[in-house]
Amino acid sequence: MSGTIHAHRDPGTIHPELEKTVIQHIFRGNQTPNVLLASLDGHSARQRAIVNNIANVDTPGFRRIEVNFEKELQREVARMRPERLGNGAISSRMVDRPLEDFSPEVSIDMSTPVRFDGSNVRIDQEMVELAKSTGKINELTELLIRQQRITQSAITGRNL
Fold first, then answer.
1. What SS3 string covers the chain?
2. pLDDT tens digits, 71-127
3. How far apart are CA 85 and CA 97, in angstroms?
């Protein structure tokens, strides 16, 4: 029988293809890692912009760069939520859609008042934003590590 997957080769051993299918079924629709990674991408882009702003603090005419992504990410997460059907059942048709369309918005800050040299970078503001961004990246990294451990524990059946 070609193409047939047998559940067991040896007693207690699951065929790799069946194991992969079971794992995919268990985690289907779990967008948590994708949302965490998208948020991490957004905060990383913000941090790169802040570092660029700090590096150009004394550059005449330099306008600070901003990165905004939170509202767009919230829209994407809301779009992925399952819908309730008229009979009370939950539709999962949008759940499996990835966050491929998400990207942080990078813009030049034209609203902040400029200094005498034409620049609008304030080192004190940038340092505060850098500390906030670093904290968020650390938090997201910790959450991703925890998510990885939960996934690994679910697959192996052991607490890590």
1. CCCCCCCECCCCCECHHHHHHHHHHHHCCCCHHHHHHHHHHHHHHHHHHHHHHHHCCCCCCCCCEEEECHHHHHHHHHHHCCEECCCCCEECCCCCCCCCCCCCEEEECCCCCCCCCCCCCCHHHHHHHHHHHHHHHHHHHHHHHHHHHHHHHHHHCCCC
2. 989 888 887 766 666 666 665 554 455 566 778 999 999 988 899 999 999 999 999
3. 18
**Domain extent for 84:** 30-149
Residue 2 lies in a domain: no
State the pLDDT at residue 5: 46
Answer whether residue 53 is part of any domain: yes
Domain count across the chain: 1
Q: What is the pTM of this model?
A: 0.71
23 within some domain: no
Residue 52 CA to residue 7 CA, distance in Å, equals 55
**Does a structural domain hold residue 84?**
yes
Token match 């997460």: residue? 77
CB 52 within 8 A of CB 87: no
